[in-house]
Amino acid sequence: MKQTIKTITKKDFLIFINTLLKDKTYEIVGVKAKGKRFVFDILNSADELRLDYDVTILPPKKYFLPQYESLMKFSLEKPFEVKETMEDRPRIIIGMHPYDIIALQQTDTQYLDPQKDDFYKKRRDNTLIIGVDIQNVSERSFAASMKTHVTDTGFDVLLTNLGTTYAVTVGTEKGSSLLKKYATTKEATSAEIKKIKEVRDNIAKKYKKKVKVDKKDWPSILAANYVNSFWEERSDVCMECSSCTMVCPTCFCYDVHDQVSLNLKDGQRIRTWDGCMLRGFTKVGSGEIFREEPKERYRHRFYRKGNYLPQRFGFVACVGCGRCGIACLPDIADPCDVMNELASFGQEEDAGRFFITQKTDVAEKETIHVPRSATIKRAEKRSEIDTLFEIELDDQKPLGHAPGQFVEVSVFGYGEAPFGVSSPPSDTPSFEIVVRKIGNVTSKLILMKPGDKVGIRGPLGTGFDVKALEGKNLLFTSGGTGMVPMRSLINYATDKKNRGKFKDITILYGAKRPKEILFMDDVEQWKKVQNVQCELTVDKCEANECWGGCVGLITTLFPKVRMDKFDSKNTIAVVIGPPVMYKFVIQCLRTMGIPEENILVSLERQMKCGVGKCGHCQINGVYVCKEGPVFNYKQIKALPEAFE
Amino acid sequence: MKPKPRVAVFDFADCEGCELEIADLEEEILDLIEIVDIVSFREVMKEHSDNYDIAIVEGSIMRPMDERRLRSIRSKAKILVALGACATMGGVNKIRNQWMPDEVIKSVYGDANVKGNELFDVFQTKALKEVVPVDYYIHGCPIDRDEFKQVITAIALGKKPEIPVYPVCVECKKNENICQFELGTFCLGPITRAGCKAICPTHNSPCEGCRGLIKKAETDCVKEVLERYKLSYEDIRRRCTMYNYGRKECSYDE
């Protein structure tokens, strides 16, 4: 819609707000005073509105992604009953400053992509935004440097203070009909329109705090300083409280947990704000924390804002509101100060990239949160510590996965955890996963029996492009539970229907102990397939364990690969295993002459949402759950956090 | 149907306020007794049984006789839950550990002859885990009722409760409070374990650290913040004495 400009007297504006309040169609939220600070809160009367505020403690993101929200209610008594929970009244937010409007538009990019967050989307559709041009500038804000102190889009209505009247810029049809129904406005005169421009031009002059670096240069300056003692010196005094991310309008990472009512009959799945500055943020099931050091977490926050998201979406994810600067007790969180200091270090050419572009095909779904009902068909112990489950989707549709993809399995009351799919692609509604007791979800799963219900989301992530492997030699190397997703691919490739599509197949498989070897019967089958070489090793074998095979790390198997007929240039190597394994295996593969671009890896991180939103699985700028877990080694090795 | 687990509630040196929080569950008490049988709870009932599966213990251990009693409770219970700051970490009772026990007796009872009376035979205050193994912790002074429910349901479902290991600031920010430091008050929120929903700062009172410190008061960041807000190190030491005397950072397993 073409923008129109009207005016409203301040008296009529108050009447407009009070009419809206009386009407009760909408919940009316506006900026109110809280002590010496300001907050967005439910408005009881128009007099409470403080459109002269400088900045609010929390950004209005809390109305789109609340601090705590129930994603669904579930029953622990009935076999499978889950209800999405969202009953929000239509809402009008009055008084959003341009930087907060722009921050919301940025969040749209992430949350309204094809795998859109249905909760966010509903609230977004249900909310009208009445923005206001900044009248007083917060002393920590540097929005003018970020060019976010004014905006031409993102609002339904925008107010500009012209003294005795407000200029009303109408941005959408929704805004226009709201005004028509509830407000008395006049067409703006050309003098008034000129005055709006003057007012806006003046806002920039009120800013004392300035970033010396143009925002288009943030990515390159950050890239040049990835390795810099600056991060450590600064983070030495970090309280690790994540206040900076909590108050940030462009931070949207979250955590999810199940809450059970005291009667043990029902419960809710709760989503709450999480922060990448908190130590446990990157912790995976096995206990490993991927950004262990405070300096790594501190650096991550700035890179996410100034390098990763700019590379992904083309905008710097800092709008210069200055809230983090106010919230940070040791005062190290302010991006303006950090960028100004980094700029003084200078920059090198071609400092590297921390983001890779990988095509991800995702179908638009109605919900990204609520799992599908499924039934455990078979539970079989596959090693001393691993249990294989065959799970059937109750809607009788096939899972439709590619090898390497994963699913999120819900056990209501216990939570949700990611599992690589272990069976090859199939037309039947059932598939297999392997469960090893690690956390709450797996501890419960291993006790479950055929007939028990679980929830399934997926398939998720990017798996192996099996077409691209055709006509090649395949060399599979897996360690430990890396065999779980690998089996999906091996069974696909060794299947009678597909065997002819691939040349020689070599399978190298290492486990810690003989009793931890998975899929021994599959291994026996693979050995019988034509032109398949299969070698096993264990790290250690106790005296009382029965093992006739090789003892040693996975790398000891490489000399056994029949090199005579080995055409390394025409070989694709697939590596899946614990983080520590990659470095050594890849070295062996390189020695064999396999080019880096022919090496595929699958990485493990904490994949919580599985759809590139919650932020837990990020490796530099890459979402493992979405762009991965399968990556081309040549691409991913450029990321410092991938194999550190 | 599986028999309901039998639960007994006990107390040592404490104010019984955490037990009161359980009693204050009001109508939800009905849900609680739906999933467990309460066989002993001196604060709310006369009946008592020594046959229980879960012992919920409030209070600190002050004397050899307490230690004997706690060991006996432990030997009968399959699961032992420490209830509230006195039990989880010694809490306010540890303030006394700044002095030797005989000095304390003298300053309280003067010249009265208490020798040989085991009621007065005190040693330095201990948290439960300093005497017996503890399976679950419900932190705080007093405890948070929702966290109590969370731990009880976790025990009933056989899962590990998800207790935060991040500071109170996270919850305080979510509540959109004005920072206590901004108000010129000194708050232990940045170094105290969350889970209380930042109840004190939300009601305009600084955090006193009752859920245990997740960061040492001696770390650089704390010094930096103290300096910035013109507060002395002595201030923080004194404030930490209230609940955290002699205590290092709390462990992630608690």
Q: Can you walk through the features of this model?
A:
The complex is a heterodimer of chains A (644) and B (254). Chain A has 19 helices and 27 strands. Chain A is elongated, with a radius of gyration of 28 Å. With 644 residues, chain A is of the alpha/beta class. In chain A, 50% of the residues are buried. The longest helix of chain A is centred in the middle third of the chain and has 20 residues, at 294-313. Chain A folds into four domains: 4-205, no CATH class; 215-343, no CATH class; 372-460, Translation factors (Elongation Factor Tu (Ef-tu), domain 3, Beta Barrel), CATH 2.40.30.10; 466-602, Rossmann fold (3-Layer(aba) Sandwich). An eight-stranded mixed beta sheet of chain A has the order 3-2-6-7-8-9-1-10. The model of chain A has no long low-confidence stretch (mean pLDDT 92). Helices cover 26% and strands 24% of the residues of chain A. With 254 residues, chain B is of the alpha/beta class. Chain B folds into two domains: 6-98 and 124-157, Rossmann fold; 168-243, no CATH class. Chain B contains ten helices and five strands. Chain B has helices spanning 17-23, 28-35, 64-76, 85-89, 101-109, 145-157, 168-174, 199-202, 220-228, 233-244, and strands spanning 6-11, 37-41, 54-58, 79-83, 136-138. Chain B has a five-stranded parallel beta sheet, with helices on both faces. The mean pLDDT of chain B is 92. At the A-B interface, strand 11 and helix 12 of A face helix 2, helix 6, helix 7 and helix 9 of B.
